[in-house]
Amino acid sequence: MTDIHSVHQFTVKNIKGEMVSLAQFHGKVLLFVNLASKCGFTPQYKGLQALYEKLSNKGFEILGFPCNQFGGQEPGSESEIQSFCSANYGVTFPLFAKIDVNGGKADPVYEFLKKEEPGILGTELIKWNFTKFLVDKQGHVLRRFGPNVTPESLEADVLAALG
User: Fold this and answer.
1) Of these residues, 7, 31, 36, 39, which one is catalytic?
2) Which residues lie below 8 Å from residue 98, measured CB to CB, with a gap of 6+?
């Protein structure tokens, strides 16, 4: 993984099971979020969708990755997750297949994100659902935000990254 320098070098599976090259997002500012439907932070879906609606026409994308590693708070199948997000929060930003973000089966794109922007005290582990990574137009990680950082409070950072 030493020659990897951008999220655009990864391919991931979307929520419909199709492989998606993240290279298609080159030139856009990205926010990666590990999601869960049964978490205390789940209402952040509303704020994420609002931020997406406000800034997607300026070159901003949110990439949502469901994860069941924290308290079993995302037990559903991909189709159940997609239905939940659509019915309860009107989510239109891209959702991806359920993944692990920590441990031996962690998705490679999340291994890259964590290595590029470690958390508090340099730990690479993601501590909970709704951890966020802001990525610039070239696919470089700018910043990591904890679950308690609301989507609404990210607007200034996103706008700065958009230029």
Assistant:
1) 39
2) 65, 66, 67, 68, 74, 78, 81
